[in-house]
Amino acid sequence: MHAQNIKGVVLNELNQPLEAAYVYNLNSESHAHTSENGVFFISQTKVGDSLKIGLLGYKTTIVQVSDTNGLNIVLEEKVFQLDEMVIREELNPVSTISRLDLNVTPVNSSQEVLRKVPGLFIGQHAGGGKAEQIFLRGFDVDHGTDVTIGVDGMPVNMVSHAHGQGYSDLHFVIPETVNKIDFGKGAYYASEGDFNTAGYVNFKTKDYIDQSSVSLSLGQFNTLRTVGLFDLLENTKNQNAYLAMEYIATDGPFDSPQNFNRLNLFGKYVIYSPENDKLTLTASHFTSRWDASGQIPQREVDNGNITRFGAIDDTEGGETSRTNLNVTYDKYITDNTTLKANAYYSQYAFELYSNFTFFLEDPVNGDQIKQKEDRQIFGANAAINYSTFLGSTELNLTSGFGLRHDIIDDVELSRTLNRTTTLENIQLGDINQTNIDAFVKADFEFGKFRVAPALRLDYFKFMYNDALQTTYETQSETKTIVSPKLNFYYNAKDNLQLYLKSGLGFHSNDARVVVANEGRDILPRSYGTDLGTIWKPFPKLVVNSALWYLFLEQEFVYVGDAGIVEPSGKTRRYGIDLGLRYQINDWLFLDSDATYTHARSIDEPEGEDYIPLAPDFTFTGGLSIDDLNGFSGGLRFRYLNERPANEDNSIVAEGYSVFDFNLNYRMKNVTLGVMIENLFDVHWNETQFATESRLQNEAESVEEIHFTPGTPFFIRGIVTYNF
Question: Can you give the C-alpha Rg of the chain in angstroms?
Fold first, then answer.
C-alpha cells in the first residue's frame, strides 16, 4: 500500500483534545504535532506503520496504523517526568517549560501569573487595584509600554490610556483558569505587533475543568479570597462549559486601610463539530475599587514622622472595571490548511487618584490628580496556516490579519482636592484609534535545520478631539510600519537546540502626543537579536540560555502628573539569560532563572547615561514538591539587584531578596493549604522612584527615593472542596 497522509486525534482520558502532542512514524521517520483541537495529519504513512505519540505529563504510547480513515488515540495522564522530554520533539520547548512550571507550582494570584515569565518582575504601588509596574530585559516597562500582553487572543495593553501608554491590567484573569502561558523575549514574532520590543506574554484559559471546586482563603490584614469553579456540562460529549468566580478583599499592611475589593466573573463554552472544528465563547466581568497610601518619601520615614506603611496623602486610590466578550473559531479547511479566528469586544472604565509630589506645585491644595477614561474596544484576528512539502523540505506558511479599534471617551487628567473637587482640567478629550495589521511567516524545515522568515505590516490612525479647545477640531495622524523578522533553529542533537533570532519591533506613542507633535516619533523602532540554546545535558536537567542585544530608536518617559510623554533618546541594551529546570526525584523539582543586563542611553555622556530603574541583575528560583503522599507546595525566592533611580546614578533604588512559602495537603475531596509571603519578614521596597517633592511644612523641594513598601510577613490559610 502506498504511503499517504493519515489523520488522527489525540485525547486524554476525559475525552478532551491534547495540544502539541508529538506524533512520530517509526517506519518513515515523518512527524507531526497535534493542533489545539487535538488533531494531527502525518505524511508518508501507511497501514502497518507504527506511530509513537508523546506529551510531557502523559504516558508515551505506540500504536499501529490499522485504518487510513482516522485514528483516535488516548493518552493516560501521569506525573511529570522531565527525563521523558525530548527537545527535538517539542513544538515550542520554552512553552513546554512554562507548562511544567504551571503544573508543579500553580498560580494563586493574578500577580503570580506574570511572574511565571522568567526574568519578569512586577511591582504594585497603588493599593492593589492599579496594574503592576513591569520590569523585563533592562526595561522599566511602566505598565506595559514594551511588552505585549494578551489573553485568549484579546489584547490587554491599553493604547493612549489615561495613566500611561500600554497600560496592562491583568486583574480580570482568575489565576485558577489559566491553562497555558506562551511567551517570547525580543521582537521576533510576526503575530505580535504594538508594544512588542522587550517581549510578549499570551495567556490561554482552560477549555474545561476536571471537577468543580470552591475555595476560601483567610489571612492577615483582614484578607479574604474566595474562588468557585463550576463545571456545567460534566461528561457531555464534544462540549464543555464552566463558570468561575473570584472575590478578594483586604486592608493590606498599611496604617491607612486599603479597603480593597475585587470581583471577577468568567464563563466559557466550547463545542466541537464532527469534523473537529472548534467554537469557543467566553464572557467575563471584573470590577475593583481601592484606597492607597501611594509612594512615600524616604526622609519622612527616616525622621520618624511616618512608618514604612504610613502615608502623606491617603486619599489616593481608584476604581476600574472591564467586561469582555470573545468568540474564537478553529476550523480545518483541508487536511493541511487550518483557520484560527476570533472577534472580541471590551467595555472598560478607569478612574485613578494619585499624588506624586504632595505640595510641590500647589502649596495650598496639594498636587493630587485624577486620571479617568471610558473605553470600548472592538477587534478581530484571523490566521490561516498551510503545510506542504517542497521536495523533501517541509513548509509551514502562516498568514494573518488583525483589526483593533478603540473608542476612548472623556480621557481626563485633572487637578483635584480630596477626590471630590476638580480644581483644573489639564487634559480632556475623546480619542479614536485604529490599528490594522497583516503578517506572513514561513517555516522551512530541512532535516535538523529550520529557517523562519516573516514580515509584518501595521497601519495606525490616531484621532483626538480636545474638549478644552473653544472650537471643535479633529486632530489626526496616520502611520504605517513594516517589521521584518528572521529566525534560525538547529537541532544539533535530540536534546540540544541552537537558535538565532532577529527582528524589528516597535511601540506606538499616545495619540494625544502624536497629534501634538504633528506625527513625529509615532512608532519608534527596536532592533534586536538573540543567540541561544535549549539543552538537556542530563535526562532530568534542562538548561536554556541566551545572549541578546536590543537597540531602541526612542524611549518615552510618561510624566503622569503633567500628562505628557517625554522622548529621552536612543538606548542600547544587551545581556544574558540563563535558566534551569532539574527534577531531583519523582516529586521534587528545582528551578532557577538569572538575567544580567547592561542598559544605557546612547546620546548622553558617560556617567549620565543610566536608564532609571532598569534592572541589571535578577535571580529567581525555588524548590517545589509535586504530589508527595498528598502534599504539594514549595519555597520560592526572587532577587532584584540595586539599580540607578536617575540618569547619573546619584540616587539608587535598593535591591531586595524575598522568600515565599506554600504547602498544601489533599485528603480525598478536601485540600488544606497555607501560604506565607515574605517568609523572613524582610524590609523591601516593591516600587521606587526618584521624585522631586515638597511637604506642606517644607520651604524647599527635595529629590530622593519615594517608595511603596513591599508586603511584610503575610500568612493565609486556604481550604478547597472539590466535587
Answer: 26
Sheet holding 178-185, edge to edge: 154-155, 147-151, 199-205, 178-185
Close Cβ partners of 523 (under 8 Å, ≥ 6 residues apart): 458, 460, 479, 481, 506, 507, 508, 509
Mean pLDDT, all residues of the chain = 91
Work out whether the CA dihedral 641, 647, 651, 653 comes out positive or negative. negative
Q: Could you give the CA distance from residue 159 to residue 467 in angstroms, rounded to a whole number?
A: 19
The alpha carbon torsion through 337, 200, 107, 230 (nearest 10 deg) reads -40
Cα–Cα distance measured from residue 410 to residue 475, given in angstroms and rounded to the nearest whole number: 16
Helix (H, G, I), strand (E, B) or coil at 93: helix
Spatial contact of 414 and 550, defined as CB atoms under 8 Å apart: no
Residue 560 pLDDT:
47
**DSSP 8-state assignment for residue 29:** -
Tell me the C-alpha distance between 511 and 474, whole Å: 12
Spell out the residues 6+ positions from residue 8 whose beta carbon is closer than 8 angstroms to its own: 23, 39, 40, 42, 51, 70, 71, 72, 73
Cell numbers representing residue 586 in the block:
519523582
Distance, in Å, from the CA atom of 592 to the CA atom of 218, rounded to the nearest integer, reads 30
Q: Which amino acid is at 607?
A: G
Residue 439 CA to residue 192 CA, distance in Å, equals: 9
pLDDT score at 86: 86
**pLDDT 10s digits, 403-412:** 999 999 999 9
Q: Could you tell me if 349 and 124 are in contact, meaning their C-beta atoms sit under 8 angstroms apart?
A: no
Ramachandran quadrant class, 15 (left: phi over 0; alpha: psi -120 to 50; beta: rest): left
CA distance 315 to 241: 42
User: Which residue from 341, 346, 320 is spatially nearest to 331, judged by alpha carbons?
Assistant: 341
Which cell is 677 given?
A: 509571603
How far apart are alpha carbons 266 and 177 in whole angstroms? 9
The DSSP line for 512-545 is HHHHHTTTTTSS-EEEEEEEEEEEEEETTEEEEE
Please return the burial class of 447, using the count of CB atoms within 10 Å of its CB with bins 0-12, 13-18 and 19+: exposed
Q: What is the DSSP letter of 258?
A: -
Q: How confident is the model at residue 559 (pLDDT cuts 50, 70, 90)?
A: low
The answer to whether the CB of 662 falls within 8 A of the CB of 648 is no
* 337 grid coordinates: 490548511
Sorted by sequence, the CB contacts under 8 Å of residue 118 that are 6+ apart come out as 577, 579, 593, 595, 620
**How many beta carbons lie within 10 A of that of residue 218, not counting itself?**
14
In whole angstroms, give the CA distance from residue 265 to residue 271.
21
**Contact of 139 with 670, CB cutoff 8 Å:** no
For residue range 247-298, list pLDDT tens digits in order.
Answer: 999 999 999 999 999 999 999 999 999 888 999 999 999 999 999 999 999 9
Higher pLDDT, 325 or 69: 325
Amino acid at 19: E
605 Cβ contact list (under 8 Å, min separation 6): none
- C-alpha 343/C-alpha 381 separation (Å) is 7
Of the chain, the percentage scoring pLDDT greater than 70 comes to 97
CA distance 294 to 317: 8
Using CA atoms, how far apart are residues 515 and 160, in angstroms rounded to an integer? 12
**CB-based contact 154:345 (threshold 8 Å):** no
Decide if 618 contacts 640 (C-beta within 8 A): yes
Residues near 664 by beta carbon (within 8 Å), at least 6 away in sequence:
631, 632, 633, 671, 672, 673, 718
- 3-state DSSP assignment of residue 248: strand
